[in-house]
Write a structure and sequence with these properties.
The protein is an alpha/beta fold. The chain has a domain at about 15-150 and about 235-255: Response regulator (Rossmann fold, 3-Layer(aba) Sandwich), CATH 3.40.50. It is built from 8 helices and 9 strands. It has helices at about 20-30, 50-65, 80-90, 105-115, 130-140, 160-170, 180-200, 205-210, and strands at about 40-45, 65-75, 95-100, 120-125, 145-150, 215-220, 220-225, 235-240, 245-250. Strands 2-1-3-4 form a 4-stranded parallel beta sheet, sandwiched between helices. Helix 2 (about 50-65) links the parallel strand 1 and strand 2. The longest helix has 20 residues, at about 180-200. The mean pLDDT is about 95.
Length: about 270
Amino acid sequence: MFSRGFTHLFFAQQATADHQGDVFSNYVKSLPPDQRPKTAAYPTLDDPFAGPTSEGIEKILKAAGIKTVYRKTYTIDQKNFDSIANAVKGSGADLVVNGATFEDGVGFVRSLLKIGYTPKMLYQTTAPSLGDQYAKAIGKGNTEGVFYAVSHSPKAKTPGNQAFVAKYKAMFGGTEVPEDAADAYAAAEVMAAAVKAVGGIDDQDKLADWLHNNKVDTILGPLSWDDAGRPQGQFLVGQWQNGVPEIVLPKDAATAQSIVPGWKPSGT
């Protein structure tokens, strides 16, 4: 979409899918040689989000000398992940990057646990960001150390975030604030900022020009865009620690004091 000349198109998250894993990839690159994974596997859903995310991570890690030993694209109707898990186990991958949504991400982890394979590091898209749903689906003890990327943290000290979180819980109840709800709210913040700046909603060119040339503070943090409307920021890196999702990178946004070195499922 961003290469087709739609100058009024803006994506109100920190980065496009192919760059969602950049912060995690650069963290892996920065590890000391004795801690850095040497091989990686990429079981990935055939999906316009999961695929580019997985490929973006692989591009950075391959350039850093981390060898790809397994890559498979599976379809949305894949229900049994035992054969994929066994193939990943056979590859001996130190790091597993699972480009997934929710159900396939859960199914893949369950299959890894079934065959008793625990790679040194596990990164998944989407599934781990769904809070209690993920913990209940694979067992809270099995979440320990799982990495993921996320756009929003309820604990973030970004402008207006605490008010947003409180209002969401007051309106809808529960303890979780879905990432998609925060993203939608941030999109509204972007639109409101542009309308306020240009003085109305009628001149689409003026709105687009203003957004192309300005930064907007949102509950996701500051958002800005290139000439094609691609966001120029970085996603947060989350990790499950002690049964709770935390933000571990970048350091200035971290809600945890340290990073668990790898995936450590307890079977509970």
